[in-house]
Amino acid sequence: MPVILIANPKGGVGKSTLSTNIAGYLASQGHSVMLGDVDKQQSARRWLALRPSHLPRIQGWDFEGDQVVKPPKGVSHVVLDSPAGLDGKRLKTLLKLADKLLMPLQPSLFDIQASFDFIQRLRELRGDEDSPKRQPELALVGMRAKEGTLSVQQLQGFLEGLEVPVLGMLRDTQNYVQLAAHGLSLWDVAPSRVERDLAQWAPLTAWLDARKA
């Protein structure tokens, strides 16, 4: 059962946007999906409360405490929306649970610095006795990217030197805001309405669907 963790210790980078849309994608593929909300802001949980009942079902899961908890039987995929400031025991707990770790970041100096520090922290944990022996597969995705801007160029330069897979840049659009306000994902509306966004998600969904050899 794949467990996808969305994580970045900096707040406001788009973790809930990624989490809800990934859950929506997986549900649209016929999977039994559970969306876990580790964030105190409970953004994913609020999104689920708004989700229309006729759409592919996504179960909620309030992740509490620092112990590793197994999802209920019958769930085929889990998406975990994590909080800002993720570190310490809680980070190690989630790393034990996750098969894939997707890290969103925005084209700003503060995001770049925080993301660099987090990647270094993940690498340090590989040698930690208390850390899981199996590390989740890590990938990055740029959020709210405006094509042709200097900030995006700086972000691309930063990503090139990280030796971490980059799944692309998701554009800055009101589509995500408007869909979230109604408990929807990109896969819950007519494709023609979000055609550009679906095209940008193609590498990301391919990564989600890929299984380790």
Automatic annotation (TrEMBL):
Provide the CobQ/CobB/MinD/ParA nucleotide binding domain boundaries.
4-184
Q: Which organism is it from?
A: Kinneretia aquatilis
Task: Tell me which InterPro entries the record gives.
Answer: CobQ/CobB/MinD/ParA_Nub-bd_dom, DNA_Partitioning_ATPase, P-loop_NTPase
Write down the CDD domains for this protein, in alphabetical order: ParAB_family
Q: Identify this protein by name.
A: Cobyrinic acid a,c-diamide synthase
What the entry lists under Pfam families is as follows:
CbiA
